Amino acid sequence: MGRDGRGEEGLPLFETKVGKKSRVAYRIFGFTVFIGICVIWVYRLTHIPAAEQGRWAWIGMFMAELWFGFYWIISLSLRLNVTYRYPFKHRLITRYGDKLPAIDIFVCTADPKIEPPTMVINTVLSAMSYNYPPEKLSIFLSDDGGSEFTFYALMEASQFSKHWIPFCKKFRVEPRSPAAYFSQNFNHQDSTLAQEEWLATKKLYEGMKFRIERATEMGSISKEVKDQHKGFAEWNSQVTKQNHQSIVQILIDGKNPNAVDDDGHQLPTLVYLAREKRPQWPHNFKAGSLNALIRVSSEISNAPIILNLDCDMYSNDSDTIKETLCFFMDEEHGHKTSYVQYPQSFNNITKNDIYSNAFNTVNMIEFAGMDGFNAAFYLGTGCFHRRESLCGLNYSENYRGDLNSVCDIRKDRTIYELEEGSKVLANCSYEADGTRVWVSGGRHHNRIENCMQGMEAGVLLSTEQKGLCGDCSNHIRSSSCSVQEVSSLWLLPFAYVYLARNACSIAESLACGDTLAAWWNLQRMWLIRRTTSFTFAFIDTIIRQLGLSETAFAITAKVVDEGVSKRYEQEMMEFGSSSVMFDIMATLAIVNLFGSVGGIVKIVWEMDESLIMQIVVCWLVVMVNVPVYQGMFLRSDKGGFPTSVVLKSVVVASLACLMMPVY
Fold first, then answer.
1. Is 585 helix (H, G, I), strand (E, B) or coil?
2. Coarse DSSP helix, strand, coil percentages of the chain, rounded to the nearest 5 percent
3. Which of 304, 477, 487, 559 could form a disulfide with 403 if both were Cys (CB 3.0 to 4.6 A apart)?
4. What is the pLDDT of residues 329-376, one digit of tens each?
């Protein structure tokens, strides 16, 4: 019986808890900060200087402070509604047993040179090894690079899975990515693991990895290997990354009773897909890949729940699927859930998170606050979708649906018939005629947004065990528009807002598991992002909205050399390339350094106390940029700034100071 007297059958499959303890404190704190912001607004409106004394700069500061006030209200509203959800997978198993729905898992990759095939198959193997009935799992690998090396790697993985899946189940392996698992320090004397079997499985994995990497490095696959599977016949001298026919190969047919692992248990379905690409047809990058996956999977498996993963985000918890289904299959609220999003987590974060990639505060507070408004972000990976919501079903309060009612679309069709039928659905013409779920930029198509109105669009599931893992300028302009003199009472609201906001930020960061150094690194990365990548993204968005350019898609390189890895482990920032982003970063750092030194000289020689607080602020920016100065002037390794970037930044900063003197 449950605590409320109800039997186990009547209890919900998940629990929602709202963080009420911190609400009162946040309200009081937020109100005082907002009062400080309002006082700053009053100061700006009542002390507008004459035109010749920097009026436009003053107005610019006022607009920035207006925006900060708006941002503060939004940010505070999230913190007042932090919501956490806890699934009860044991209730799900007890209630539904073997009546759990089928799951389609999409893994996307695009270039074997940037995204190594060995990394891709580790994600695939982790998905194949979920603690879930294998006959209800179908894994689809979308290869937008159309590479036979990726296909070869998947073929090798299909063979290795016969050993890996039983090994995972026997010894309850976590995580179930072979690379992540075997990289852990393990005590062979542990009685729960047979040392010989552990070593044998690792040897099989290392052998598979060696063969894949050797073939990729050599740039060719031997005839003996190609003779092992008919799928290699799809590649010839005419096939290129941007010009090839649809390729669909079912490497493991989960419906075939002979497709079993070493223990005689059924294997999951495994499918390779390279959608058709032609130079004259738009392909819409990853969005087009996901569209093709939805169409092809509807032909082969048509599972009601879809999980999409990037090729570098492996499963970190084998029970993730069962925990997720608690939200879709809950009798009272399940029909309102369109998708369940897992926060992105990474396994190689350094102690002080030099690049601020962990996003602990964002995941645990801000995203949880958005979830409290039923507005969980779709992050592009690590998300479970209801197929019906993706395919245009209009929401109805009375419609409950049955996740097990999907008809058997395969019937008596052969593998050949399924592959040929799927090739038609992977045709490039689909991206041109508007039959799309995703559009360029990674967002849902309008018809999907329409059909989800009324639904709890999605929930954010952040458990203690991570479900999925991977791997503005503040320099001084003029004394008339910055911080007040030390002796002025108008300094108080500026100082309070600044100190209070940062004190709150530090407290949140520490509460979420960050170190103080990690918080400081986060301030640096926010400064860098806001003055470079965020600015470029804003400009690019405006240009695209005006129809002056088209969306571009850049693949993030997943290959890192040994030197870069070593410097990362030592928490040394990497600046060793030439780009506009690094030019801006270095130039702003030099301008702030020049301004700080010039300000101190002016204070010493002229005894002008009106500049003291401005210099303090400017020196804070200089302190944040210490790693940038080190990369420019002190480091001799390959991670330092190129000489050309240093020279350009010094010249541009010098010209800026001469043309617009600060003092």
1. helix
2. 50, 10, 40
3. 304
4. 999 999 889 999 999 888 889 999 999 988 899 999 999 999 988 888
Backbone angles phi, psi at 322, to 5 degrees: -65, -40
Strand partners, 458: 339
| CA 571 vs CA 352, 355, 642: distances in Å | 8, 9, 19
Q: Which residues lie closer than 8 Å to 529 by C-beta, 6 or more apart?
A: none
Report the range of poorest mean pLDDT among 357-366, 437-446, 528-537, 597-606: 437-446
Q: Which helix (H) or strand (E) holds 298?
A: helix 285-300
* Model confidence, pTM: 0.89
310 is in an annotated binding site: yes
CA count, 13 A, side-chain hemisphere, 534:
9
Contact of 254 with 134, CB cutoff 8 Å? yes
pLDDT digits (tens, 9 = 90+) for 173-189: 999 999 999 998 766 55
Is pLDDT at 421 greater than 60 in this prediction?
Answer: yes
Residue 642: is its pLDDT beyond 50? yes
Buried b / exposed e across 140-151, counting CB within 10 Å, b at 16+?
Answer: bbbbbbbbbbbb
Report the amino acid identity of residue 127: A
Q: How distant, in Å, are the alpha carbons of 89, 178, 187, 262 from that of 201?
A: 30, 9, 16, 12
Alpha-carbon distances, residue 409 vs 102, 275, 300, 302, 419 (angstroms): 13, 21, 7, 8, 14
The answer to whether the annotation marks 514 as part of a ligand binding site is no
Of 68, 76, 77, whose CA–CA distance to 498 is shortest? 68
CA torsion, points 654, 660, 661, 663, in degrees to nearest 10? -140
The verdict on whether residue 456 carries a ligand-binding annotation is no
* pLDDT tens string 98-150: 899 999 999 999 999 999 999 999 999 999 999 999 999 999 999 999 999 99
Phi/psi at 577 (nearest 5 deg)?
-150, 160
> Length of the chain in residues, anyone?
663
Q: Which residues contact 458 (CB under 8 A, 6 or more apart)?
A: 337, 338, 339, 340, 341, 374, 375, 376, 378, 383
Q: Which domains does the chain have, with CATH numbers?
A: 89-462 (3.90.550.10), 529-663 (no CATH)
How many Å separate Cα 657 from the centre of its chain? Answer: 39
How far is the C-alpha of 372 from the C-alpha of 84, rounded, in Å? 8
Q: Tell me phi and psi for residue 13, to 5 degrees.
A: -90, -10
144 is in an annotated binding site: yes
The answer for residues whose C-beta is within 8 angstroms of residue 73's C-beta and 6 or more apart is: 34
